[in-house]
């Protein structure tokens, strides 16, 4: 009989299933009173002991011989799961079944909850997470030295909310984000890869594209960089080659997927751009934070009438303290959670930990930064990436090649550093204003942000080290005649050894515009929207620095030594660390309200909140709820900078809410400043100073958020900046890029004149209506032949569009001379196609509305690409692109052009119009349209 069972088990393909059937066979034998047949179901000692006599055991001995005789079936058991254990009695077995069901019920209920949310589409994520929990996660919950309480370990592992949020909720969120942004890799039928197997198919991969599984486990012969089977010797998790442990489960390194390393920042799990997208998960956190919101609103409502100016005056401390108690109550925390844990920071780390755990937020380092020894600055302690911003290790220095104590600003025992000389001087801005510099230092000392020592000996005693790095002080002017302290970590060499793990991505004006359009779309107008702009006071000084990094936080002024306890303004990593903290604060605040009630964007320490509600009182309540929530966490506001209403200034631009549109404009003083800076650069000889050129490019880049056509002139200047910086020069040779600088100066001069004109809307102002998200109601279709150009103006959308005007004109002598073309030659076909677009826009621009969407169709892919990118390798196309860009930049009616391709066979109307001089007739479909005569295209036509 044993032989028959062995033969039957041998037919089973899966080793795991063979082991299960074998174990079941032994259980059945025991139920029948027979001896067990598998060696691996007995312990070593038990196998040598005679089994107790049971009913029928004598017959079993007679039938199968000695009790120690066993059929060796261990070959069928999975060697990974080849455990030994004594079998249970029937009563004990039934009791264990009941206990096991009770233990597994807690995990089953959570899986059922996830399935009701994500359904079949993401079922594979849930299964993978469950397997990971059983295979590796459960071991973390076993009591030390006690492997018997597996039921309790499983219960704790199955109910670990942060694990399910990381393995399921965040993965679902990232997939949804990629689907929304169009970055998901797809195997569409129209993709270039159609001739063979799909690249997504495992069987279609060649060996060099496959990971070597033997390398993951470190098998003999697979430890080097070269695989004997031709596969990739890379860790499957982090996609790098490194020593053991390796693999998806064992590797402890941060994965370096293409999503994390994307440069656009759109797929980040968290950040400061459109905080809405960072607060979509996990679903259970919304329930918890809705409870927090309801509690805060109950606390705030009695104070609503007294707080007339939201953000302009400090919040009552009694109200803020009650909010802290409410957070502790909802999050099941201890009363001590609201205590200050770091004397150098006002942030309450205990509350941050409660909120981050309740939200299952991925930046789990922040509670340690705020509650423990402080935050790292990336010198002696690393800043671990948390997928908040794109991973950036391109410029990270190798710690083995740079010695911290050989930097220009380092001070140590027995060294003669210029930082210790009596003649040591800071920057002129600080030395020329000693009273102001000392006043700022004393003010920071009073708030615990720094400590001032009378001598080097006192500093050494505080640092417990004779080695430290000294940075020079400078004063940077601020609006209102104030100054900001700068500690230059570049001159001291400190920034050369700072390792930043991520690259900060800040929101743009376009992000705030998209949020406004989303909320206005809920009601069909902008009437129910209101802005609140606040400022986090002290910014970088809110985050205390780890004591181990204090030796890199030293400055000198006169005979005094200053040790900064918080992030210094001037260290390369300070923006990253602070933006991690402020981004987390915005994510948590966004969780309080749904996406249809409130949106947040935060530019470093300057958040802008857009609130939607029918009642002004409700909008005020929601604003105060967010402010009191942040105040409870320890964030301090600059009340004098707070703005509230339908018109606020944020990141230098003016946001104005009207009934039908959101208007974004650049103030006149900034237009004038950009024009003056450009003119000063233009007045310099062939080479211009690199620093002001970079500053000018940065300002124009910011202005291009409103007028994107400025990028056509900005790209050549950025290229010159990059060349000069790469060569280490302090000046740049503009060369042919000087023409781009001239065009920009001309643009700002025209913009300044329009600002001065009474009742005129200047060209650095742009309105966004809800209709801009709909298909354009105005369309222009153009075409060109080797002898002429033509175009049609349509009103309406889709099939209901009606032609209202058209033009058709032959190529003139001026055209051929200007571009060097030949009549009847196809060499300049792309040039004529792009010229047709320019002519059509000049003819019909007066019939368009400001900032109205206009679709421009052409069957030329080359001219379409040049019009969209505003640049080309062809001199003639570049000349036309520059005219087109400047014409559109100066005219609000041409700001919303949408270029689209039309097949040549569908472009018969414009094609016929471009061949009228060849004898073609005007198409009958244009009988009701008006023909427009083209003016001569001489110098006057092309003048701007």
Shape: globular
Strand content: 5-15%
Count of discrete structural domains: 6
Briefly note the structural class of the backbone. Answer: alpha+beta
Helical fraction equals 25-40%
In DSSP terms (H or I, runs of 4 or more residues), the helix count works out at 30
Terminal Cα separation, in Å? 100 Å
- Quaternary organization: single chain
User: What number is the mean pLDDT?
Assistant: 80
Radius of gyration, whole Å: 35 Å
Give the uncertain stretches in residue-range form: 42-85, 181-205, 254-269
Number of strands: 22
Main beta sheet: strand number and arrangement?
Answer: 6 strands, mixed
Pfam families: RVT_1 (PF00078)
Protein name: Reverse transcriptase domain-containing protein
Organism: Perkinsus olseni (Perkinsus atlanticus)
Biased composition (Polar residues): 180-194
Q: Could you characterize the architecture of this molecule?
A:
The structure is a single chain. The chain contains 30 helices and 22 strands. Helix content is 39%, strand content 12%. A hairpin with a 3-residue loop joins strand 3 and strand 4 (482-488). It is α+β, with helices and mostly antiparallel strands. Strands 1, 2, 3, 4, 6 and 7 form a 6-stranded mixed sheet that branches. A 6-stranded mixed sheet has the order 21-20-17-18-19-22. The longest helix is centred in the first third of the chain and has 29 residues, at 90-118. It has 6 domains: 2-87, no CATH class; 93-176, no CATH class; 284-376 and 520-541 and 577-663, no CATH class; 404-504 and 544-570, HIV Type 1 Reverse Transcriptase, Chain A, domain 1 (Roll), CATH 3.10.10; 666-763; 774-942, Nucleotidyltransferase, domain 5 (2-Layer Sandwich), CATH 3.30.420.10.
């Amino acid at each position: 009989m044993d032989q028959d069972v062995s033969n039957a088990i041998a037919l089973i393909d899966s080793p795991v299933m063979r082991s299960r059937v074998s174990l079941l066979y032994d259980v059945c034998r025991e139920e029948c009173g027979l001896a067990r047949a598998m060696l691996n179901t007995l312990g070593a000692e038990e196998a040598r002991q005679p089994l107790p006599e049971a009913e029928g055991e004598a017959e079993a001995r007679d039938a199968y011989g000695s009790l120690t005789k066993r059929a060796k079936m261990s070959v069928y058991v999975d060697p990974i799961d080849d455990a030994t254990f004594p079998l249970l009695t029937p009563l004990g077995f039934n009791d264990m079944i009941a206990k096991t069901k009770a233990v597994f019920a807690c995990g089953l209920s959570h899986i059922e909850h996830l399935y009701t949310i994500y359904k079949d589409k993401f079922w594979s994520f849930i299964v993978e997470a469950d397997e990971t929990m059983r295979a590796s996660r459960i071991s973390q919950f076993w009591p030390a030295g006690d492997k018997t309480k597996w039921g309790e370990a499983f219960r704790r592992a199955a109910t670990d909310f942060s694990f399910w949020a990381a393995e399921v909720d965040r993965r679902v969120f990232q997939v949804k984000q990629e689907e929304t942004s169009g970055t998901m890799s797809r195997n569409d039928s129209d993709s270039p890869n159609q001739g063979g197997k799909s690249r997504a198919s495992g069987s279609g991969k060649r060996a060099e594209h496959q990971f070597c599984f033997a390398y993951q486990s470190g098998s003999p012969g697979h430890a080097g960089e070269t695989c004997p089977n031709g596969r990739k010797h890379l860790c499957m998790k982090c996609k790098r080659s490194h020593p053991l442990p390796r693999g998806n489960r064992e590797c402890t390194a941060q994965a370096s997927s293409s999503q994390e390393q994307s440069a656009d920042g759109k797929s980040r799990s968290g950040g400061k751009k459109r905080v809405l997208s960072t607060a979509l998960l996990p679903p259970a956190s919304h329930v918890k934070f809705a409870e927090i919101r309801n509690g805060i609103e109950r606390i705030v409502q009695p104070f609503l009438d007294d707080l007339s100016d939201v953000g302009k005056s400090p919040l009552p401390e009694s109200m803020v303290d009650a909010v802290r108690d409410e957070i502790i109550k909802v999050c099941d925390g201890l009363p001590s959670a609201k205590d200050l844990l770091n004397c150098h920071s006002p942030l309450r780390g205990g509350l941050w930990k409660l909120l981050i755990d309740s939200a299952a937020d991925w930046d789990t380092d922040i509670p340690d930064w705020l509650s423990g020894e402080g935050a790292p600055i990336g010198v002696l302690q690393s800043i671990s990436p948390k997928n908040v911003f794109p991973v950036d290790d391109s410029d990270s220095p190798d710690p083995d090649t740079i010695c911290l104590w050989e930097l220009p600003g380092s001070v140590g025992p027995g060294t003669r550093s210029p930082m210790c000389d009596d003649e040591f001087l800071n920057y002129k801005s600080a030395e020329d204003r000693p009273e102001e510099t000392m006043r700022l230092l004393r003010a920071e000392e009073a708030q615990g942000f720094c400590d001032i020592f009378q001598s080097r000996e006192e500093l050494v005693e505080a640092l417990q080290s004779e080695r430290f790095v000294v940075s020079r002080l400078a004063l940077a002017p601020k609006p209102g005649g104030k100054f900001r302290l700068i500690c230059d970590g570049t001159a001291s060499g400190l920034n050369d050894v700072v390792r930043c793990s991520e690259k900060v991505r800040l929101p743009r004006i376009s992000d705030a515009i998209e949020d406004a359009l989303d909320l206005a779309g809920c009601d069909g107008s902008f009437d129910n929207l209101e802005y609140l702009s606040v400022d986090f006071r002290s910014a970088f000084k809110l985050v205390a620095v780890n004591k181990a990094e204090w030796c890199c936080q030293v400055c000198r002024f006169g005979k005094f030594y200053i040790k900064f306890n918080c992030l210094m303004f001037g260290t390369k990593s300070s923006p990253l660390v602070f933006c991690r903290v402020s981004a987390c604060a915005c994510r948590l605040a966004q969780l309080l309200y749904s996406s249809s009630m409130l949106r947040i964007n935060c530019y470093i320490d300057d958040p802008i909140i857009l609130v939607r509600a029918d009642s002004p009182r409700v909008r005020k309540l929601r604003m105060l709820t967010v402010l009191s929530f942040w105040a409870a966490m320890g964030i301090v506001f600059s009340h004098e900078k707070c703005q509230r209403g339908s018109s606020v200034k944020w990141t230098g631009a003016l946001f104005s809410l009207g009934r039908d549109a959101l208007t974004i404009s650049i103030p006149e003083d900034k237009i004038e400043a950009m024009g003056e800076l450009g003119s000063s650069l233009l007045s310099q000889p062939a080479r211009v100073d690199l620093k002001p050129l970079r500053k000018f490019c940065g300002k124009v880049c910011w202005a291009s958020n409103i007028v994107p056509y400025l990028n056509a002139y900005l790209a050549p200047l950025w290229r010159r900046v990059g060349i000069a910086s790469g060569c280490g020069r302090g000046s740049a040779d503009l060369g042919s890029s000087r023409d781009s600088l001239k065009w920009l100066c001309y643009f700002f001069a025209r913009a300044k004149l329009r600002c001065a004109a009474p009742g005129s809307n200047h060209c650095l102002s742009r309105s966004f209506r809800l209709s801009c998200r709909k298909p354009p109601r105005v369309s222009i279709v153009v075409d060109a032949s080797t002898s002429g150009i033509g175009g049609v103006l349509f009103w309406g959308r889709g099939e209901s569009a009606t032609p209202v005007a058209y033009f058709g004109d032959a190529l003139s002598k001026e055209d051929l001379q200007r571009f060097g073309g030949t009549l009847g030659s196809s060499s300049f076909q792309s040039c004529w196609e792009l010229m047709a677009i320019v002519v059509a826009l000049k003819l019909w621009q007066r019939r368009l509305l400001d900032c109205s969407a206009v679709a421009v169709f052409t069957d030329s892919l080359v001219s379409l690409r040049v019009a969209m990118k505003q640049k080309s390798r062809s001199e003639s196309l570049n000349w036309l692109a520059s005219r087109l860009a400047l014409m559109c930049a100066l005219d609000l009616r041409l700001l919303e052009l949408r270029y689209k391709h039309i097949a040549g066979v569908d472009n018969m109307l414009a094609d016929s119009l471009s061949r009228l001089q060849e004898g073609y007739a005007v198409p009958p479909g244009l009988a009701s349209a008006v023909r427009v005569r083209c003016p001569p295209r001489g110098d006057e036509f092309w003048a701007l």
